[in-house]
Specification:
The complex is a heterodimer of chains A (413) and B (152).
Chain A (H helix, E strand, L loop, with lengths): L3 H6 L7 E2 L2 E2 L1 E2 L10 H14 L9 H21 L6 E4 L2 H11 L1 H4 L5 E5 L8 H10 L2 E5 L9 H7 L4 E7 L11 H10 L3 E5 L3 H4 L4 H4 L3 E5 L10 E5 L1 H6 L10 E4 L4 E3 L13 H17 L1 H20 L4 E4 L10 E6 L4 H10 L2 E2 L1 E3 L4 H7 L4 E5 L6 H18 L8
Parallel strand pairs in A: 3-15, 5-6, 5-7, 7-8, 8-9
Antiparallel strand pairs in A: 1-2, 4-10, 9-10, 11-12, 13-14, 14-17, 16-17
Helix pairs in contact in A: 2-12, 3-12, 4-6, 13-16, 14-16
Chain B lengths: L1 H7 L2 H8 L12 E7 L4 E10 L2 E10 L2 H14 L4 H16 L25 H25 L3
Helix pairs in contact in B: 2-3, 3-5, 4-5
The chains are: A alpha/beta (413), B alpha+beta (152).
């Protein structure tokens, strides 16, 4: 069990008032708030250790390098991946682009197939569209069920010997759906396909074990798990990384450079061209330490308890349409819904007026919106500092929105 | 905040949103304009009859938030009977209203005046602007097709 009252004291922003009301922050699938330990790590780095890494001979450079590489070791431990397989990127999007380009351009050819699902975030869709256009490979899609689940059987149906890579989310950012990843990895590997798992939503909210999943690549995003923006993680099999050509060229990623040629540094540095977000990576290490102290199993338990409560309370709101699985074992804490007759943007504006921050829109998943037959949804997404009282505030605000828009109005005509 | 919400969603806006007299297609329309906001998925299509350079009947179809749909309804009402030149003035006046600038005294906004509250919600301005951006584009297309059609 999480001691949420105590946890909340670590997050300065949760004491804020918005439009005169205490902030209820339910937009965690977009980005999470930061505990003071993470904020202080940034301040400490810039006020005590700031230097470029891997190249200075002075004390500060050594301190910065040790802290940066320490964060890599912690990230590897957190994901149960090998340290040599952990590459820091700008974000999860860049991590997917890195693999799609560096692996895909060299290994895909006309006739090959890339298998995705209908519920991918644009970040796990558009990079594959680009590489498909560049290589002549075809995109294939596994369909989801009407309640937003990904059944193994439906993936099996579209998986063929032509499938060279399978990429799917471990937890939908719109529906919360948790996919049967380990089973899908086995299926894909049996066909000889590589597997990229998009963990941007799952890694912050549940225990994720790279080795146990058995996938070839796993990506995550620091800012969705208490860390700063500007840091993403690509965890991959080191031998796979070694077999790949670089994604970006520049400093740090080289072993030797001549005027017309260069040789590459070892992995993972081969994929970290240029000065990275050093302070951000170090602060991300603090975010991981924070999550380790709480225990990811406890974080997941809290999400299930809160999501179960939220689904019960929301289902009782008249005229609500809830999307995604109802069983909290099969889903995380991102809950999408619509109110009859009201557009999500209008609902979001009234909720904001009540101090309740949610996302209203297509959530960077337009194909999924079309599959659901809607232009947009309202999405409330929870994290480890959210409470049942905040769910109550959300429900009250939704009823306030309904009362506001359904009020009798004078006729203009 | 509630005051500001009341300003944003005035009764006249909700009334146009829920029961617009201008929703539909204008029979025998010679003018057509479409607006699409890919960020929020809002869609608008205006159709209108035109005679002697003036708008006759103006109708709209589409889906979207209360602001975008109510604006389309109020804009349709305001366009009827206007010349292309008057429409340009109306569009300039609406842009000025969103910027909080003083309006040309000669432009009658009618119900559209109710949109003054939108400027306090910068992210919602694009919802209202979808209507006049669509009409502006539609008039440009009309102008171009006439220019092309009149070539010898």
């Amino acid at each position: 069990m999480l001691d949420v009252t105590r946890i909340r004291q670590d997050f300065p922003i949760l004491a804020r008032r918005v439009h005169g009301k205490p902030l209820v922050y339910l937009d965690n699938a977009a980005t999470t708030q930061k505990p003071r330990q993470v904020i202080e790590a940034l301040v400490t780095y810039y006020s005590q250790h700031n230097a470029n890494i891997h190249r200075g001979l002075h004390a500060l450079a050594e301190e910065a390098t040790a802290a940066y590489e320490g964060a890599r070791e912690r990230a590897a431990r957190f994901l149960n991946a090998q340290t040599r397989g952990v590459v820091f990127t700008r974000n999860a999007t860049e991590a997917i682009n890195l693999f799609a380009q560096a692996w895909g351009r060299a290994n895909l050819k006309p006739g090959d197939e890339i298998l995705l699902t209908e519920m991918e975030h644009h970040s796990n869709l558009v990079p594959w569209q680009l590489v498909a256009q560049a290589t002549g490979a075809q995109l294939r899609f596994a369909q989801i069920t009407d309640d937003g689940r990904l059944e193994v059987e439906r993936v099996r149906r579209v998986l063929t010997p032509k499938t060279k890579v399978v990429a799917f989310t471990l937890m939908s950012n719109v529906l919360g759906t948790i996919t049967p990843a380990a089973e899908l990895v086995r299926l894909a590997h049996a066909q000889g396909a590589l597997v990229l798992v998009d963990g941007a939503q799952a890694v912050p909210h549940m225990p994720v074990d790279f080795a146990a999943l058995g996938c070839d690549v796993l990506v995550a995003s620091a800012h969705k798990m208490l860390g700063p923006t500007g840091v993403g993680v690509l965890a991959a099999r080191p031998d796979l990384l070694e077999s790949m050509e670089p994604f970006l060229g520049g400093g740090e990623m080289i072993a030797d450079v001549q005027l017309t040629s260069a040789t590459w540094n070892e992995v993972p540095w081969k994929f970290e061209a240029g000065t990275p977000h050093i302070g951000g990576v170090i602060a991300f290490g603090e975010a991981l330490a924070y999550l380790e102290r709480l225990g990811m199993a406890n974080v997941r338990q809290h999400a299930m308890d809160l999501t179960r409560y939220a689904l019960e309370r929301l289902a009782a709101v008249p005229g609500i349409m809830l999307y995604g699985p109802r069983d909290v074992v099969q889903r995380g804490g991102a809950v999408s819904f619509n109110l009859e007759g009201l557009h999500p943007h209008d609902v979001g504006t009234v909720l904001d007026g009540e101090g309740v921050a949610v996302r209203a829109g297509h959530h960077c998943a337009k194909p999924l919106m079309r599959r659901l037959g809607v232009a947009a949804t309202v999405r409330a997404s929870f994290y480890l500092y959210n409470t049942r009282e905040e769910v109550d505030r959300l429900v009250e605000a939704l009823r306030a929105a309904q009362a506001f828009f359904n009020r009798p109005v004078r006729s203009a005509a | 905040m509630l005051d500001q919400l009341d300003e944003l969603y005035r009764d006249v806006i909700l009334d146009h949103f829920k029961a617009s007299a201008h929703r539909g297609e204008a029979p025998g329309a010679s003018f057509r304009a479409e607006g699409h906001n890919p960020l929020c998925g809002d869609d608008l299509t205006f159709t209108a009859t035109m005679k002697d350079g003036r708008f006759g009947q103006v109708r709209f179809t589409g889906k979207g938030c209360a602001i975008s749909q109510a604006t389309a309804s109020m804009f349709s009402a305001q366009l009827e009977g206007k010349t292309v030149e008057q429409t340009g003035r109306l569009i300039r006046a609406m842009k000025a209203l969103m910027q909080g600038e003083t309006l040309e005294a000669s432009v009658d906004l009618g119900d559209l005046e109710a949109l003054a509250g939108v400027r306090k919600f910068p992210v919602r301005i694009k919802c209202a602007a979808l209507s006049w951006n669509a009409i502006e584009q539609g008039l440009q297309n009309l102008h171009q097709s006439r220019a092309e059609g009149s070539r010898p």
